[in-house]
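retry 2 of 3: previous attempt timed out while embedding alpha-D-ribofuranose. Reduced batch size to 1 and resubmitted. Inputs unchanged:
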Amino acid sequence: VGRVLVIGGSNTDLVCRAPRMPMPGETLNGTTFAIYPGGKGANQAVAASRAGADVVFGGAVGDDDFGRQRLSDLRADGVDTRLAREQSQCSSGVALIIVDDRGENQIVVIPGANERIDAGFVDDVIDQSNAEILLAVVEIPVDVLGHAILRSAGRHRVILNVAPFDARVRAFIPQIDVLVCNESEASGLLGRSVSFDSALRDVEALRQLACGTAIITLGEHGACVADAGGSWVEPAPTVKVVDTTGAGDTFCGVLAAWLSNGASMRDAVRAGVVAGSLAVTRAGAQPAIPRRAEILAAMAAGSSL
Ligand code: RIB
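retry 2 succeeded.
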């Protein structure tokens, strides 16, 4: 079994559903409220673990009930949290999320302990994790993320998910093996608008920024990929969308798990797209992430789930 180190944020997601997003200054009645485990790093760790990898979480929580609960959830999912930090005198990351009737979301994140991760911490987790793959995501300080990527270069295969977008990651792209972003993050990196119609050209332009493989996730259209062998689109199965929160994280975690277990890029992207499609059919970030058996069954079932 391949071993994946995930460096990224952990949050508690406070989620309300509403028929639509409120306008500025407007008060709107929603329909339901729920608390879910989330955070892009923790979501990706859970996705990789459920997909069959051996996963170490390199992130931080605060010294509060939310933080203790988040680490315990990760452990229940088989994720190794022994290197994670419980930061004293600090709150845990929280995300306030509104999901509308189309399943689209708006998110405000209060980073808390995620913002306190420093270079010494990532040095320790990289040195002690014994992983083949580093999966890194931008919900921690960007300079620390860059430090982690530089320290991992040549030791780990490095996958970077540029979410949420931060232009400073451009500096690290030449050290990255696999770059994953969605259309708006790709637009930010390329400085022009990116859409499904232009995605094959755009993904090749991203690869020209000097990473080994570039991937743009395209929601209901799947993902497009450029690597040394060329570029292609991996289409997504048709599904009924309930909640898109965490779909990109599911893609990244499953991609890393498949690659860590020796899959080709084509198979790993296919598994990630199918897993992301399954995740949008259910509510919440971590509760919606599928397990390996479900992903394999859906891959065998084909274009409509
Ligand atoms: O990518 C989804 C995640 O973004 C949520 O779980 C939330 O915590 C925010 O970080």
